[in-house]
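Thread: quick sanity check before group meeting

JM: Hey all, I'm pulling together slides for Thursday and realized we never actually wrote out the predicted structure for the chain we discussed last week. Dropping the sequence here so it's in one place. If anyone has concerns about the input, flag it before I start.
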Amino acid sequence: DVDLIHCRIGKIEGLEILSLRQNLIKQIENLEELGCLNELDLYDNQIKKIENLQALTELEILDISFNILRRMEGLERLTKLRKLFLMNNKICKIENLGHQQQLEMLELGSNRIRVIENIDNLSHLDSLFLGTNKITKLQNLDGLTNLTVLSIQSNRITRIEGLQCLMNLRELYLSHNGIEVIEGLENNRKLTTLDIAANRIKKIENISHLTELQEFWMNDNQIENWGDLDELKNAHSLETVYLERNPLQKDPQYRRKIMLALPTVRQIDATFIRF
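JM (edit): ok, ran it. Output follows.
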């Protein structure tokens, strides 16, 4: 069924958006006549393989998240793709993206990926999401010079490295890993959001040059020295800090001391400051 009642349609012509979310589709098929399709949404079905998309040469947005894909394949003809969502599948390897020169967003969260690879030629990529995989190292990112958002939460990373060429990066999410030291951010001076919550960090350091920071998430670590907050004093636009569940929080003057050390802050943990 295609229901287009009361949509102010003025002309019958090429279908541009097709959404088949949350159904029981097992195979991608019978789309050959939809060459004008711009967006295809197959989120939450039972698809095992990316196939039969070669006729959709105008496709810009493809979402096959929450299916049972094991491989990234069948994308070769989709050279105009701007956004690709393959979250929550069973993908083990990043591959077959060599033709996706226009790709701006790549979502591969909640898969089984162990290595960041085969994406260094995606020079137009703006946002990369790799959360909840099995990645152990930040690597092969040098070619992503236009990247502004990198999310790699809930992996197995122990060091912040390999980000030196990402000078346009604005949001970096590294929570729920095994990081022990804040380092390797010397060239990422445009960062506005830094999330390193739920790691094994004992000291806030090496971020005094991040003067554009607006959000700093550092909860669930091992910070115990109030002097560490001096690293954030150059961030004159800092509005939000998360420091809960660090040893610092045991101090009865916890919130007051943060307010005195960082007077621009408007939110401490999940609570806004009242003036």
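AS: nice. The CA atoms of residues 29 and 52 lie 6 Å apart. The radius of gyration is 22 Å.
JM: adding both to the slides.
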